[in-house]
Amino acid sequence: MPTYQQFPLPDAGEGLTEAEIVTWLVAVGDTVEVNQTIVEIETAKSLVDLPSPWAGVVTRLLVETGTTVDVGTPIIEIDTDPDGTAPADGPGGASDERASDEHASDERASDERASARADEPAPTTGAVRHVGGGLRRSGVEPGGADEIEAAREARAAASEPAASGPAASGPAAPEARESVLVGYGLAEGTGARRARGDAGAASAVTPAVAPAATPVAAPSRPTHALAKPPVRKLARELGVDLDSLTPTGPGGIVTREDVLAHAAQAEARTLATYPGDDQPWLASGTVSSDGRQTRVPVKSVRKRTAEAMVTSAFTAPHVTVFHTVDVTRTMKLVEKLRGDKEFADVRVTPLLIAAKALLLAVRRHPEINASWDEDSREIVYKHYVNLGIAAATPRGLVVPNVKDAHRLGLHELAAALGELTSTARAGRTSPADMTDGTITITNVGVFGIDTGTPILNPGEAAILAFGAIREQPWVHKGKIKVRSVTQLALSFDHRLVDGELGSRVLADVASVLADPAQGLVWG
Amino acid sequence: MSSSGLPYASAAAPAAPSSPAAIPGGSAAAPVPTTDGRAAALSSPARASAPGVLPAVEGGPLADEGLVQLLTPSGERVSHPEYDAYVAHLTDDDLRAMYRDMVLTRRFDTEATALQRQGELALFAQALGQEAAQVGSGRALKPQDHVFPSYREHGVAHVRGVELTQVLRLFRGVDHGGWDPVAHGFHLYTLVIGSHALHATGYAMGVQRDGLVGTGDDERDTAVVAYFGDGATSQGDVSEALVFAAVNQAPVVLFCQNNQWAISEPTTRQAAAPIAARAPGFGIPAVRVDGNDVLASYAVTAAALERARRGDGPTFVEAFTYRMGAHTTSDDPSRYRSSEQEEHWRRRDPIDRLRTHLEARGALPATFVDGLQAEADAFGEHLRTAVRAMGHPSAASMFEHVYATPHAGVEADRTWFETYESSFLDAREGSHR
Q: Domain Lipoyl-binding: where (chain A) (predicted)?
């Protein structure tokens, strides 16, 4: 008969405690070989491929993409004997879920934890809280989504009985990595010291075999409805009150069907939908029950971008100054360099000149190339310029930087910028490429935008927005001429950069762009 | 990182004439401590041939000029005036046996890495890419020789008959290594970088004092090998070992696998000249060998071991190779080295090289290849099963190997510990956690 094995998230480094599920490379129903790569995870150290420990058929993915889970959390269930007959009892009573829910139920599991914990206080967890008796580890059956929840509860509970529980013969270690079913005790030894005989020092002699694991007796209609987390989530989404339902599941639990049946009766017709509106807009998304929204987990680059932007926007007081400038001479220089044999192997763009102009400005005003160290209450002035370039990539916004850009000649700078952007576009920007930037340029001009108020890359004091270059009427030598004009914006961190400094830096950048020969004077 | 591009790729041209000077023959009888050796190696553009002096190499520590090579990367056998003699007796069967060793070592690597990713091992260090250096040198050993490995010498362990699951007991964290170092002539793995170069040198000095050197009896004369990496040469211990080995003429081969990476630190950040160029400064002759060439690794080690057993003193071997994998399973090399560099070395895979050679000779029949594949698969399965079934050793085993002979203090500790253990209620069930 089918044998379900659950693979707990391993520690892929040394002493890591958690990892994010980045990509599942297998789906429910897939046949996997031993050591076939099944999932890509991201630890604090690196991206790691995990190989399957078993051959078999994937029956469930227990953790959703984009979720960060603790080491030891089961992440996938594999039937290692798929040719067997139907499961006798279903692992953990979850077999009814498996057929209809597949991974949908699991995707919800993590989101559901918080609410499940709130809805579901005493009755079922009571039995779990007998920790640390003389229990041997009884073959713990996999129970899927419930089990993750149970393990967390158990872990939380494990520290409590140490104070008052019957088996408190010593301080209980609160770490309990094993997964347990609701209603079953933890394995012996995971939470408490070994019991000593009379040779032991003092403490109350407790019976080695404590009646800790009395399984939950057939529930006698509890005050709150019993339901699995995915079902709870479904009920919440559909606005169904679980307590008002008559449970039909084994042991008096509310099943998915109970919820759906109730919802079908109660629900008014949903708003008019267009054909196909109930399909997810993105492959990684799920559609809300009314078919009118796609929800996509926030992960990887998006997640980091969000964190960085929130950190920056709400710690560094931003000020932005603007400048409109005639860059006709810069355009002529770009034109000329493009025809120059020496520059034949690199891309010459107005951005290159802007980058050089910013480097020259930094050289004249090194105080701009700094960061605020909140912990030590110090301003850190950098002796080097790692010039960041905000790049739109298929994976999202990344800001790799050109290391020691202040040392580079124009040709080297062009080559470095070219390599940086091509690496970013190919999605191969490494974490090292993105760390330790000191100042950044965002080239909003490529989108045809005049300018904006950029948010600082965290840890930097200034960011330059380079706008679109347009031909415009412009007063040139006392006459109205058609000239190439652009707008520059510089946001800076007002904690360490005052308006004067920020304005001077921007004026210098503009000055070089207006007349690149100025670079000779300052270079 | 750009400096670690591929400077060695272009330095191939005038290699041939310099190779005979790799080990100065004249130094064999009485190595001359050359005080000017290092300066000469660094500055003289001429192909130096003074005793104990390595030819100057323009390309710095990564130059592949002057490497002893018997098989080219395309598997072509090239002749070498000095080292041909050391491989002349090898038959196709011998070559196939080397091939098998390398394939099984790599399978071990792959399987152990997967086991770590499955949570069965705490850590693992791959030998990936270094199989030729290890199997070639390991096969040159005699049963009485003694090896002091670091923690990456799985290929040598395999050749020395160590059951490789024992190695995994260490990486699973249940034991320090379960094999008998004396029975296999293979010491326990040393995790401290470079310290075992001193242990090996000391052991070799013991061999010397036991009169097991220079007797002319092939069964008796003994050599010692210390395996360490390029990173270890930055440790003082290795330099100390070189001093002691040289002044005592210890029968030790200092075998440095230069895999070009000390975790994330490239060789270029640790040496300005080839690492082997240091040894002549200590008075130890040195040779640089293509570490991805199993035949050359065998020949060069065999010659060095012979010198040691004859009583002619230590030799420093730099096997120039490449760590194709990560430093350990906790490391992510994509953070510090380019995929171009990795690809360059993937095309120089040591196993491919021997396979191409055997195929060209028509010496690799399909039956052998299939049989080896099946053997490797069974080996993989064996490793998985064995690792998952590994229990914990009894706590009392910690007293077993403290001293070679009975010791009253240890016995007292053991007695106390056993009493203490038996005071636990669950001890009656005979279980140790």
A: 4-79
Residue A270 lies in a domain: no
| B339 interaction partners in chain A (CB closer than 8 Å) | 428
Count, residues in chain B:
433
Distance separating the N- and C-terminal Cα atoms of chain A: 78
Active site residues of A: 494
User: Domain span at residue A518?
Assistant: 302-522
- Residue A426 CA to chain centroid, in angstroms? 21
User: Tell me: the pLDDT tens digits for A9-45?
Assistant: 998 877 788 899 988 999 999 999 999 999 999 887 6
In the numeric block, the tokens 């340029």 are attached to A441
DSSP classification of residue B152: -
Burial class (CB in 10 A: 0-12, 13-18, 19+), B32: middle
Q: pLDDT: is B362 or A225 the higher one?
A: B362
Judged by CB atoms closer than 8 Å, whether chains meet at A197 and B330 is answered as no
In chain B, what residues touch A45 (CB-CB under 8 Å)?
A: 330-332
- Residues B334, A430: C-beta atoms closer than 8 Å: yes
Nearest-CA distance A415 → chain B (Å): 12
Looking at the structure, tell me whether residues A388 and A513 fall in a common domain: yes
Residue B22 dihedral angles phi and psi, to the nearest 5°: -60, -50
Residue A101 predicted with pLDDT over 70: no
Last residue of a domain, one of A141, A173, A195: A195
Please measure the distance between the N-terminal and C-terminal CA atoms of chain B and give it in whole angstroms: 48
Residue in chain B lying closest to A35 (CA): B114
B336–A432 C-beta distance less than 8 A: yes
If one compares B52 and A457, the residue with the highest pLDDT of the two is A457
Q: Which long-range contacts (CB under 8 A, 24 or more apart) does A170-175 make?
A: A170/A203, A172/A131, A172/A132
What are the two backbone dihedrals, phi and then psi, of residue A247, each rounded to the nearest 5 degrees? Answer: -70, 145
CATH of the domain at A458: 3.30.559.10
- Are residues A188 and A334 part of one domain? no
B117 reaches A (C-beta below 8 A): yes
* B169 contacts: CB under 8 Å, gap ≥ 6: B175, B177, B178, B390
Which one, of B129, B386, B112, lies nearest residue B257 by Cα? B129
Place of tokens 């330059």: A464
Lowest mean pLDDT among A183-197, A224-238, B197-211, B241-255: A183-197
To the nearest 10 degrees (0 to 180), the angle between helices B350-360 and B92-117 is: 150
Token couple for B321: 């190779």
CB < 8 Å to B118, chain A: 7, 10, 50-53
Does a structural domain hold residue A385? yes
Residues 6+ apart with CB under 8 A from B414: B396, B399
d(CA A262, CA A25): 36
Judge whether A271 lies within some domain. no
Residues of chain A in contact with residue B426, where contact means CB-CB under 8 angstroms, are: 134, 194-195, 208
Enter the tokens of residue B255: 């075998």
Taking the C-alpha atoms of residue B123 and residue B120, their distance in angstroms, rounded to an integer, is 9
Domain assignment present for A202: no
Q: Considering the domain delimited by B59-387, tell me its CATH architecture.
A: 3-Layer(aba) Sandwich (3.40)
Q: Bridge partners of B265?
A: B262
Boundary of a domain, candidates A195, A230, A258: A195
Q: At a CB cut-off of 8 Å and minimum separation 6, what does A304 contact?
A: none
Query: For the domain that residue A86 is a member of, what is the CATH number?
Result: 2.40.50.100
A13 with B330: Cβ contact below 8 A: yes
Contact A100/A249 with Cβ under 8 angstroms? no
* pLDDT tens string B166-177: 999 999 999 888
Residue with tokens 């009896």: B217
B188: its two tokens = 């326990």
Cβ of A346: how many Cβ atoms within 10 Å?
Answer: 20
Q: Are A494 and A379 spatial neighbours (Cβ–Cβ below 8 Å)?
A: no
> Residue written as tokens 């989530």?
A233
